[in-house]
Amino acid sequence: MMSAGVELTSEGQTVGKVSSAAFSPKFGVAVAMAYVRRGHNTPGFVLQSQDGLAEVTSLPMGR
Fold it and tell me: Taking the CB of residue 56, how many other CB atoms lie within 10 A of it?
């Protein structure tokens, strides 16, 4: 599960950090809020972390 403080990377460069995360029963996966640098914050962009892959989405989720 994704956890707060985990760094997000793209092509080996740190581009963000998770600020909070929790398991979502609705989606069946962890959801997280993170600060992500411009250029890496487009919905659909996939980032890496020590906890696995993270996909950038827009809010509200699940439309």
Answer: 16
- Contact (CB, 8 A) for 31 and 24: yes
Q: Do 21 and 4 form a contact (C-beta atoms < 8 A)?
A: yes
CA 12 – CA 50 distance, rounded (Å):
12
**Full 3-state SS string of the chain:** CCCCCCEEEECCEEEEEEEEEEEECCCCEEEEEEEECCCCCCCCCEEEECCEEEECCCCCCCC
pLDDT tens track of the chain, all 63 residues?
Answer: 788 999 999 999 999 999 999 999 998 988 999 999 999 999 999 999 999 999 999 887 765
Rounded distance, CA 7 to CA 16, Å? 6
